[in-house]
Design a protein that fits this description.
Helix content is about 35%, strand content about 30%. It is of the alpha/beta class and about 425 residues long. It is globular, with a radius of gyration of 24 Å. The two termini are about 35 Å apart. About 10% of the residues have low confidence. It comes from Candidatus Nealsonbacteria bacterium CG08_land_8_20_14_0_20_38_20.
Length: about 425
Protein backbone atom coordinates (compact mmCIF):
# COMPACT_ATOMS: atom_id res chain seq x y z
CA UNK A 1 0.00 0.00 0.00
CA UNK A 2 1.31 3.47 -0.94
CA UNK A 3 2.21 5.65 2.03
CA UNK A 4 0.42 8.88 1.09
CA UNK A 5 1.84 10.72 4.10
CA UNK A 6 5.38 9.90 2.95
CA UNK A 7 4.65 11.12 -0.58
CA UNK A 8 3.22 14.36 0.79
CA UNK A 9 6.32 14.93 2.93
CA UNK A 10 8.52 14.35 -0.12
CA UNK A 11 6.65 17.00 -2.11
CA UNK A 12 6.86 19.53 0.72
CA UNK A 13 10.57 20.00 -0.04
CA UNK A 14 11.91 20.51 -3.57
CA UNK A 15 15.37 21.49 -4.75
CA UNK A 16 16.04 23.42 -7.95
CA UNK A 17 19.06 25.00 -9.56
CA UNK A 18 19.05 28.16 -11.68
CA UNK A 19 21.82 28.09 -14.27
CA UNK A 20 22.36 31.52 -15.84
CA UNK A 21 24.77 31.51 -18.81
CA UNK A 22 25.93 35.05 -19.53
CA UNK A 23 28.33 36.62 -22.01
CA UNK A 24 31.15 36.69 -19.46
CA UNK A 25 30.34 34.13 -16.79
CA UNK A 26 28.07 31.37 -15.50
CA UNK A 27 26.04 32.07 -12.37
CA UNK A 28 24.32 29.38 -10.32
CA UNK A 29 21.83 29.55 -7.46
CA UNK A 30 20.38 26.56 -5.61
CA UNK A 31 16.83 27.00 -4.30
CA UNK A 32 14.74 25.07 -1.83
CA UNK A 33 10.97 25.24 -2.03
CA UNK A 34 9.33 24.12 1.19
CA UNK A 35 5.62 24.59 1.99
CA UNK A 36 5.31 27.38 -0.56
CA UNK A 37 8.35 29.29 0.72
CA UNK A 38 11.46 29.71 -1.46
CA UNK A 39 14.95 29.96 0.04
CA UNK A 40 18.31 30.45 -1.66
CA UNK A 41 20.72 27.90 -0.17
CA UNK A 42 23.89 28.59 -2.12
CA UNK A 43 25.44 30.25 -5.13
CA UNK A 44 28.33 29.92 -7.53
CA UNK A 45 30.05 32.15 -10.10
CA UNK A 46 32.67 31.19 -12.67
CA UNK A 47 34.11 33.22 -15.56
CA UNK A 48 34.67 31.75 -19.00
CA UNK A 49 38.09 33.34 -19.48
CA UNK A 50 39.60 31.13 -16.79
CA UNK A 51 39.40 28.21 -19.23
CA UNK A 52 39.44 29.95 -22.63
CA UNK A 53 42.68 29.81 -24.61
CA UNK A 54 41.62 28.71 -28.09
CA UNK A 55 38.62 29.53 -30.28
CA UNK A 56 37.72 26.24 -31.98
CA UNK A 57 34.21 24.84 -31.63
CA UNK A 58 35.43 21.74 -29.80
CA UNK A 59 37.37 23.78 -27.29
CA UNK A 60 34.44 26.13 -26.75
CA UNK A 61 32.32 23.10 -25.84
CA UNK A 62 34.90 22.10 -23.22
CA UNK A 63 35.02 25.68 -21.92
CA UNK A 64 31.25 25.67 -21.42
CA UNK A 65 31.36 22.33 -19.60
CA UNK A 66 34.22 23.30 -17.30
CA UNK A 67 32.76 26.71 -16.46
CA UNK A 68 29.33 25.27 -15.67
CA UNK A 69 30.85 22.47 -13.59
CA UNK A 70 32.92 24.86 -11.49
CA UNK A 71 29.98 27.20 -10.84
CA UNK A 72 27.71 24.29 -9.88
CA UNK A 73 30.36 22.79 -7.58
CA UNK A 74 30.73 26.12 -5.78
CA UNK A 75 26.96 26.40 -5.26
CA UNK A 76 26.72 22.80 -4.05
CA UNK A 77 29.56 23.32 -1.60
CA UNK A 78 27.93 26.41 -0.09
CA UNK A 79 24.45 24.88 0.08
CA UNK A 80 25.46 21.37 1.15
CA UNK A 81 22.93 19.85 -1.28
CA UNK A 82 22.88 18.58 -4.86
CA UNK A 83 20.23 18.61 -7.56
CA UNK A 84 20.23 18.08 -11.31
CA UNK A 85 16.88 19.84 -11.93
CA UNK A 86 17.56 23.23 -13.49
CA UNK A 87 15.84 26.34 -14.73
CA UNK A 88 18.01 27.74 -17.50
CA UNK A 89 18.65 31.36 -18.37
CA UNK A 90 20.79 32.98 -21.05
CA UNK A 91 22.27 36.39 -21.72
CA UNK A 92 20.15 38.69 -23.87
CA UNK A 93 22.39 38.21 -26.90
CA UNK A 94 21.14 34.58 -26.98
CA UNK A 95 17.66 34.66 -25.43
CA UNK A 96 15.94 37.78 -26.74
CA UNK A 97 12.97 39.58 -25.26
CA UNK A 98 10.78 41.91 -27.29
CA UNK A 99 7.43 43.65 -27.07
CA UNK A 100 5.35 44.28 -30.18
CA UNK A 101 2.10 46.12 -30.81
CA UNK A 102 -0.71 45.03 -33.09
CA UNK A 103 -3.93 46.81 -34.00
CA UNK A 104 -7.24 45.64 -35.40
CA UNK A 105 -9.80 47.93 -37.03
CA UNK A 106 -13.49 47.34 -37.66
CA UNK A 107 -14.41 47.20 -41.33
CA UNK A 108 -17.59 45.66 -42.65
CA UNK A 109 -18.35 44.07 -39.25
CA UNK A 110 -14.92 42.46 -39.01
CA UNK A 111 -11.73 43.46 -37.27
CA UNK A 112 -8.78 43.59 -39.67
CA UNK A 113 -5.08 44.05 -39.06
CA UNK A 114 -4.28 47.63 -40.00
CA UNK A 115 -1.14 46.64 -41.87
CA UNK A 116 -1.47 42.98 -42.75
CA UNK A 117 -5.23 42.94 -43.32
CA UNK A 118 -5.67 39.61 -41.57
CA UNK A 119 -9.30 38.94 -40.70
CA UNK A 120 -10.29 38.00 -37.17
CA UNK A 121 -13.73 37.48 -35.62
CA UNK A 122 -15.68 40.53 -34.48
CA UNK A 123 -16.42 41.20 -30.82
CA UNK A 124 -19.07 43.29 -29.07
CA UNK A 125 -19.07 46.07 -26.53
CA UNK A 126 -20.81 45.68 -23.18
CA UNK A 127 -24.17 47.48 -22.99
CA UNK A 128 -26.09 48.51 -19.88
CA UNK A 129 -29.25 46.78 -21.02
CA UNK A 130 -29.12 42.98 -21.07
CA UNK A 131 -31.45 42.88 -24.10
CA UNK A 132 -28.87 44.73 -26.18
CA UNK A 133 -26.07 42.25 -25.46
CA UNK A 134 -28.09 39.06 -25.57
CA UNK A 135 -26.61 36.69 -28.16
CA UNK A 136 -24.05 39.35 -29.15
CA UNK A 137 -21.40 39.03 -26.47
CA UNK A 138 -18.35 37.16 -27.73
CA UNK A 139 -17.96 33.66 -26.36
CA UNK A 140 -14.75 31.89 -25.34
CA UNK A 141 -14.32 30.35 -28.77
CA UNK A 142 -14.38 33.72 -30.53
CA UNK A 143 -12.02 35.27 -28.01
CA UNK A 144 -9.65 32.34 -28.45
CA UNK A 145 -9.67 32.82 -32.23
CA UNK A 146 -8.82 36.51 -31.88
CA UNK A 147 -5.95 35.84 -29.47
CA UNK A 148 -4.63 33.02 -31.62
CA UNK A 149 -4.56 35.28 -34.67
CA UNK A 150 -2.88 38.16 -32.84
CA UNK A 151 -0.18 35.93 -31.36
CA UNK A 152 0.40 34.12 -34.64
CA UNK A 153 0.91 37.37 -36.54
CA UNK A 154 3.16 38.80 -33.82
CA UNK A 155 5.26 35.64 -33.87
CA UNK A 156 5.53 35.79 -37.66
CA UNK A 157 6.61 39.43 -37.68
CA UNK A 158 9.24 38.95 -34.95
CA UNK A 159 10.62 35.78 -36.56
CA UNK A 160 10.98 37.44 -39.97
CA UNK A 161 12.70 40.51 -38.54
CA UNK A 162 15.10 38.60 -36.28
CA UNK A 163 15.90 35.99 -38.94
CA UNK A 164 16.90 38.75 -41.35
CA UNK A 165 19.13 40.27 -38.69
CA UNK A 166 20.84 36.95 -37.81
CA UNK A 167 21.03 35.53 -41.34
CA UNK A 168 18.91 32.47 -40.55
CA UNK A 169 15.47 31.23 -41.56
CA UNK A 170 12.34 32.28 -39.60
CA UNK A 171 11.58 28.62 -38.86
CA UNK A 172 14.98 28.32 -37.15
CA UNK A 173 13.79 30.52 -34.27
CA UNK A 174 12.37 28.94 -31.11
CA UNK A 175 9.80 30.94 -29.12
CA UNK A 176 9.84 30.37 -25.36
CA UNK A 177 7.20 32.87 -24.28
CA UNK A 178 4.39 34.54 -26.22
CA UNK A 179 1.66 36.35 -24.32
CA UNK A 180 -0.65 39.35 -24.57
CA UNK A 181 0.29 41.95 -21.95
CA UNK A 182 -2.41 44.51 -22.65
CA UNK A 183 -5.64 44.86 -24.62
CA UNK A 184 -7.26 48.19 -25.49
CA UNK A 185 -10.49 48.99 -27.30
CA UNK A 186 -10.82 52.52 -28.71
CA UNK A 187 -7.94 53.57 -26.44
CA UNK A 188 -9.38 52.11 -23.23
CA UNK A 189 -7.67 49.26 -21.42
CA UNK A 190 -9.95 46.24 -20.96
CA UNK A 191 -9.35 43.01 -19.03
CA UNK A 192 -10.93 40.79 -21.68
CA UNK A 193 -12.42 40.85 -25.17
CA UNK A 194 -15.64 39.28 -23.93
CA UNK A 195 -18.66 41.52 -24.51
CA UNK A 196 -16.92 44.41 -26.28
CA UNK A 197 -17.40 46.37 -29.51
CA UNK A 198 -15.51 49.34 -30.93
CA UNK A 199 -13.71 50.90 -33.87
CA UNK A 200 -10.18 49.81 -32.96
CA UNK A 201 -8.48 47.16 -30.82
CA UNK A 202 -4.82 47.40 -29.76
CA UNK A 203 -2.66 44.64 -28.30
CA UNK A 204 0.74 44.69 -26.59
CA UNK A 205 2.53 41.33 -26.89
CA UNK A 206 5.61 39.98 -25.12
CA UNK A 207 7.84 37.43 -26.84
CA UNK A 208 11.03 35.67 -25.75
CA UNK A 209 12.93 33.60 -28.30
CA UNK A 210 16.32 32.26 -29.37
CA UNK A 211 17.93 30.60 -32.41
CA UNK A 212 17.43 26.85 -32.55
CA UNK A 213 21.15 26.26 -33.12
CA UNK A 214 21.62 26.74 -29.37
CA UNK A 215 19.06 23.99 -28.76
CA UNK A 216 19.87 21.31 -31.31
CA UNK A 217 23.08 19.55 -32.28
CA UNK A 218 22.29 19.26 -36.01
CA UNK A 219 23.08 22.90 -36.84
CA UNK A 220 26.69 22.18 -37.84
CA UNK A 221 26.99 25.29 -40.02
CA UNK A 222 27.01 27.64 -37.03
CA UNK A 223 30.03 28.52 -34.91
CA UNK A 224 28.12 28.62 -31.63
CA UNK A 225 28.09 25.24 -29.88
CA UNK A 226 24.62 23.78 -29.15
CA UNK A 227 24.35 24.67 -25.47
CA UNK A 228 21.23 22.68 -24.57
CA UNK A 229 22.63 19.30 -25.73
CA UNK A 230 25.87 20.09 -23.86
CA UNK A 231 23.98 20.72 -20.62
CA UNK A 232 21.95 17.52 -21.03
CA UNK A 233 25.16 15.55 -21.67
CA UNK A 234 26.36 16.80 -18.28
CA UNK A 235 23.44 15.02 -16.62
CA UNK A 236 21.16 17.98 -15.94
CA UNK A 237 17.40 17.88 -16.36
CA UNK A 238 16.22 21.15 -17.92
CA UNK A 239 12.81 22.04 -16.51
CA UNK A 240 12.33 25.33 -18.34
CA UNK A 241 14.22 28.03 -20.24
CA UNK A 242 13.25 31.44 -18.87
CA UNK A 243 13.93 35.12 -19.51
CA UNK A 244 14.27 37.48 -16.50
CA UNK A 245 11.61 39.77 -17.95
CA UNK A 246 8.89 37.25 -17.10
CA UNK A 247 9.89 37.55 -13.45
CA UNK A 248 9.89 41.34 -13.72
CA UNK A 249 6.22 41.42 -14.75
CA UNK A 250 5.02 40.79 -11.18
CA UNK A 251 7.46 43.44 -9.91
CA UNK A 252 5.68 46.04 -12.06
CA UNK A 253 2.59 45.75 -9.88
CA UNK A 254 4.65 47.44 -7.13
CA UNK A 255 6.43 49.94 -9.40
CA UNK A 256 4.23 50.53 -12.47
CA UNK A 257 6.40 53.33 -13.91
CA UNK A 258 10.10 52.53 -14.06
CA UNK A 259 13.21 52.09 -16.16
CA UNK A 260 14.99 48.84 -15.33
CA UNK A 261 18.58 48.25 -16.44
CA UNK A 262 20.26 44.84 -16.48
CA UNK A 263 23.96 45.67 -16.86
CA UNK A 264 25.58 42.40 -17.86
CA UNK A 265 29.09 41.46 -18.91
CA UNK A 266 28.96 42.80 -22.46
CA UNK A 267 25.38 44.00 -22.96
CA UNK A 268 23.05 46.35 -21.08
CA UNK A 269 19.36 45.52 -21.38
CA UNK A 270 16.67 48.19 -20.97
CA UNK A 271 13.10 47.57 -19.80
CA UNK A 272 10.65 50.48 -19.94
CA UNK A 273 7.45 50.16 -17.92
CA UNK A 274 4.55 52.62 -17.89
CA UNK A 275 1.27 52.25 -16.02
CA UNK A 276 2.24 48.73 -15.01
CA UNK A 277 2.73 47.56 -18.61
CA UNK A 278 6.06 46.64 -20.17
CA UNK A 279 6.27 49.06 -23.09
CA UNK A 280 9.72 48.41 -24.58
CA UNK A 281 12.71 46.08 -24.36
CA UNK A 282 16.01 47.10 -25.91
CA UNK A 283 19.75 46.69 -25.40
CA UNK A 284 23.13 48.10 -26.37
CA UNK A 285 26.54 46.46 -26.45
CA UNK A 286 28.30 47.92 -23.43
CA UNK A 287 28.57 46.21 -20.05
CA UNK A 288 30.78 45.46 -17.10
CA UNK A 289 33.54 43.88 -19.16
CA UNK A 290 34.30 47.21 -20.86
CA UNK A 291 35.06 48.70 -17.44
CA UNK A 292 37.52 45.88 -16.75
CA UNK A 293 39.17 46.37 -20.15
CA UNK A 294 39.95 50.04 -19.56
CA UNK A 295 41.71 49.08 -16.31
CA UNK A 296 43.58 46.32 -18.10
CA UNK A 297 44.76 48.60 -20.91
CA UNK A 298 45.80 51.52 -18.72
CA UNK A 299 47.35 49.60 -15.81
CA UNK A 300 48.94 46.72 -17.73
CA UNK A 301 46.83 44.08 -15.99
CA UNK A 302 45.47 40.78 -17.24
CA UNK A 303 41.71 40.61 -17.70
CA UNK A 304 41.39 38.54 -14.53
CA UNK A 305 43.50 41.00 -12.51
CA UNK A 306 41.54 43.97 -13.88
CA UNK A 307 38.22 42.35 -13.03
CA UNK A 308 39.34 41.56 -9.48
CA UNK A 309 40.52 45.16 -9.07
CA UNK A 310 37.17 46.43 -10.33
CA UNK A 311 35.34 44.23 -7.82
CA UNK A 312 37.52 45.48 -4.95
CA UNK A 313 36.85 49.03 -6.07
CA UNK A 314 33.08 48.41 -6.09
CA UNK A 315 33.30 47.00 -2.55
CA UNK A 316 35.40 50.00 -1.39
CA UNK A 317 38.17 47.58 -0.49
CA UNK A 318 40.99 49.93 -1.60
CA UNK A 319 42.80 52.95 -0.20
CA UNK A 320 41.29 56.35 -0.96
CA UNK A 321 44.24 57.24 -3.18
CA UNK A 322 43.84 54.04 -5.23
CA UNK A 323 40.09 54.61 -5.49
CA UNK A 324 40.61 58.12 -6.85
CA UNK A 325 43.01 56.94 -9.55
CA UNK A 326 40.83 54.02 -10.59
CA UNK A 327 37.73 56.22 -10.48
CA UNK A 328 39.31 58.58 -13.04
CA UNK A 329 39.79 55.68 -15.47
CA UNK A 330 36.32 54.24 -14.90
CA UNK A 331 34.67 57.60 -15.59
CA UNK A 332 35.78 57.26 -19.23
CA UNK A 333 33.93 53.96 -19.65
CA UNK A 334 30.99 55.29 -17.62
CA UNK A 335 30.61 58.22 -20.01
CA UNK A 336 30.64 55.89 -23.05
CA UNK A 337 28.07 53.63 -21.37
CA UNK A 338 25.88 56.66 -20.56
CA UNK A 339 26.01 57.83 -24.19
CA UNK A 340 24.89 54.38 -25.35
CA UNK A 341 21.99 54.44 -22.89
CA UNK A 342 20.82 57.88 -24.02
CA UNK A 343 20.95 56.87 -27.68
CA UNK A 344 18.73 53.85 -26.97
CA UNK A 345 16.24 55.88 -24.95
CA UNK A 346 15.93 58.32 -27.85
CA UNK A 347 15.17 55.39 -30.15
CA UNK A 348 12.52 54.09 -27.75
CA UNK A 349 10.55 57.36 -27.65
CA UNK A 350 10.51 61.12 -27.26
CA UNK A 351 8.02 61.39 -24.40
CA UNK A 352 8.55 61.76 -20.67
CA UNK A 353 10.33 58.80 -19.06
CA UNK A 354 9.74 57.43 -15.55
CA UNK A 355 12.11 58.93 -13.00
CA UNK A 356 12.76 55.69 -11.07
CA UNK A 357 15.68 53.54 -12.24
CA UNK A 358 16.10 49.99 -10.95
CA UNK A 359 19.53 48.61 -11.78
CA UNK A 360 20.88 45.08 -11.49
CA UNK A 361 23.50 42.79 -13.00
CA UNK A 362 27.24 42.70 -12.28
CA UNK A 363 27.96 46.05 -13.94
CA UNK A 364 25.40 47.82 -11.74
CA UNK A 365 27.69 47.46 -8.70
CA UNK A 366 30.03 50.22 -9.88
CA UNK A 367 29.22 53.45 -7.95
CA UNK A 368 29.82 55.50 -11.12
CA UNK A 369 26.69 53.98 -12.69
CA UNK A 370 24.39 55.21 -9.94
CA UNK A 371 26.13 58.58 -9.89
CA UNK A 372 25.83 59.30 -13.61
CA UNK A 373 22.19 58.20 -13.75
CA UNK A 374 21.27 60.66 -11.00
CA UNK A 375 23.66 63.50 -11.82
CA UNK A 376 24.55 63.10 -15.50
CA UNK A 377 23.57 65.45 -18.33
CA UNK A 378 20.48 63.90 -19.94
CA UNK A 379 20.40 66.61 -22.64
CA UNK A 380 17.06 66.38 -24.49
CA UNK A 381 15.71 63.37 -22.53
CA UNK A 382 12.90 64.33 -20.14
CA UNK A 383 11.81 62.71 -16.87
CA UNK A 384 8.75 63.18 -14.69
CA UNK A 385 11.09 64.10 -11.80
CA UNK A 386 14.88 64.07 -11.29
CA UNK A 387 16.09 60.46 -11.76
CA UNK A 388 16.41 58.29 -8.66
CA UNK A 389 18.33 55.01 -8.64
CA UNK A 390 17.62 51.85 -6.65
CA UNK A 391 19.17 48.39 -6.77
CA UNK A 392 16.79 45.55 -7.62
CA UNK A 393 17.63 42.74 -5.19
CA UNK A 394 16.13 39.66 -3.54
CA UNK A 395 14.23 41.70 -0.93
CA UNK A 396 12.24 43.32 -3.74
CA UNK A 397 10.96 39.96 -5.01
CA UNK A 398 7.94 38.36 -3.38
CA UNK A 399 8.42 35.18 -1.36
CA UNK A 400 12.18 34.68 -1.87
CA UNK A 401 14.45 34.43 1.18
CA UNK A 402 18.24 34.39 1.23
CA UNK A 403 20.88 34.65 3.92
CA UNK A 404 24.03 34.20 1.83
CA UNK A 405 24.60 37.86 0.93
CA UNK A 406 23.38 38.06 -2.66
CA UNK A 407 23.86 41.34 -4.53
CA UNK A 408 22.33 42.95 -7.61
CA UNK A 409 24.69 40.74 -9.64
CA UNK A 410 22.49 37.75 -8.76
CA UNK A 411 19.17 39.43 -9.60
CA UNK A 412 18.86 37.99 -13.15
CA UNK A 413 19.12 34.47 -11.71
CA UNK A 414 16.56 35.31 -9.02
CA UNK A 415 14.21 36.68 -11.66
CA UNK A 416 14.56 33.52 -13.74
CA UNK A 417 13.32 31.44 -10.82
CA UNK A 418 10.78 34.05 -9.74
CA UNK A 419 9.19 33.81 -13.20
CA UNK A 420 8.32 30.12 -12.86
CA UNK A 421 4.61 29.51 -12.55
CA UNK A 422 3.70 28.51 -9.03
CA UNK A 423 6.98 29.68 -7.47
CA UNK A 424 5.37 32.61 -5.66
Amino acid sequence: MVNLFFLKRQKEKELFLVLDIGTEAVKVLIFEKRQGKISVLGGGLEYFDRFRALESGKFETEVIKKTISKAVEEAQKESGVKTNSIFLGFSCDILKGRTISYSLKRKENKFLFLKNQVSVPKFFKFRNRESEIKNKRVDEKEEGEIKETVLREAKKKIAESYALQKGILPQDIQFQELRILETKIDGYRVPSLLGYDGEKADFKILATFLPKYYLESNFSDFISPPIIPIIREMGFKILEIRHPIVGLLSFLSQYPDALLLDIGGEVTQIFLAKRGILEEISEFETGGRQFSQILSENLGLSELEARNLKHRYSKRDLTEESRREIGKLLKISTHLWFQGLKEKLREIGSGIFPSEFFIFGGGALLPEIEEILEQGDWEDISFAEPPKVKFLQSKDLINIEEKIGLTAQNTPSLLNYHSIKGSF
